Amino acid sequence: MPPKVKFQKEEIVNAAVEITREKGIDALTARELASKLGVSTRPIFTYFDTMEQLKSEVRAYAKELYREYIQHGLKAPISNLGVGRQYLRFAKEEPELYKILYLKKPDGSTGGAMEALKLSQELVRDSVMKKYNMDAVTADLYFRDLWLVSYSFTTLIVTGECPYTDEEISSIFTRFSLSLCKAYKEIPGFTDGSFDKDAIFKELVKK
Amino acid sequence: MPPKVKFQKEEIVNAAVEITREKGIDALTARELASKLGVSTRPIFTYFDTMEQLKSEVRAYAKELYREYIQHGLKAPISNLGVGRQYLRFAKEEPELYKILYLKKPDGSTGGAMEALKLSQELVRDSVMKKYNMDAVTADLYFRDLWLVSYSFTTLIVTGECPYTDEEISSIFTRFSLSLCKAYKEIPGFTDGSFDKDAIFKELVKK
DNA sequence: AACGTTATGCAACACTTGTTATGTAACTAA
DNA sequence: TTAGTTACATAACAAGTGTTGCATAACGTT
Predict the structure, then answer these.
(1) Which residues touch strand C (CB under 7 A)?
(2) 0.85 surpassed by pTM
(3) CATH code matching the domain that covers B1-49, chosen among 3.30.420.40, 1.20.950.20, 1.10.10.60, 3.40.50.880
(4) Which of A132, A157, B73, B115 could bond A91 through an S-S bridge, CB–CB 3.0 to 4.6 Å?
């Protein structure tokens, strides 16, 4: 019989995630990981054929954690805003994990930002339809518009460029939310883009 | 007298930019660059002490090119929309240069997305104030809001995730533009966030 | 035409990366 | 207690990186 294993697969992935959190996935090397675990690099390759395989597991972990954040946001009284707040929390608390999911996806990988949007739309659709009395198409468009705004904030956050406080972001977000909602409900043809842009523009200019 | 130089500094930077365009700045190595120029790696280090120094020049080039794009957008009849369109063009035509400016800024570097926003605000402010009869503060806020939307599109574009056509983006952008402009002009207190959110929300819910 | 200067090519150095060959020793079944 | 299996440490390999020492040859000046 062989000697007892010193490390389970899970411990290795956890340590790999920890390194990624601290220094980004590019700093996740075999030697760095081995050093963190206090072993040689050999055991890593008994569980994973290549480092790339291990990195895939780190991405899977990030994806799952992200999903948990979103689920948590659904519990909020206004679920679409709750989900938006969780986007921001994830970006702020796990910037490096955010990056590997949405900023530096490896070539040919599935998933990414648009897939995450679709998931959120499905989760929030019913709630938005009821709350604002919208049909499914409008609810999806409305949520997508808000998502676009939150996406720019999360990008700013993880690149270390966001100058706004939580309160400011929240305030900006609310204003987007209300102005879009008003437009979707009050401007005929706003949903499919067939509304009379010129008429509205002229009205805005003269005021 | 020494022999004639085979390469001027500028040619080296140009080749470096070309490699960055094609494969990203991480693929810009001394040997790759030398191979493209058809020389050994030695001459590179007569002009640049380190590769990092050369990369700085590539970033400077990208920044200047970006500035030219923006300047071009100012000529449009509605200059704020023209600038927005140029953001998107730059992201689509120079995704790798966009990345080094706004997605992977090296630690401790100046500039970045928020600085670019400030620059654009200054360039567009007067035009927006006149066109929509806004004060400077409102004009800046309005432009920033639109910038946030364009920023999410450019990020999607350079990460290869944007599923929208130019027309779709243009349409979405126009809708944001109009709905925000209406809100800034029609909702008292919208600029400083002191407007009565609850009243508006109730109104939207019952409709 | 000879000279001194120096840009360049060649090849090496030092370092980091992923990955692996080898020997050892830990463990359990006998 | 013995033996076989195999996880592990050690150390190496190969490939790739930035950077540099050295010899050479090209060039304008003299």
Answers:
(1) A 1-4, 27-32, 41-42, 45, 49-52; B 1-3, 5-7, 38-43, 46
(2) yes
(3) 1.10.10.60
(4) A157
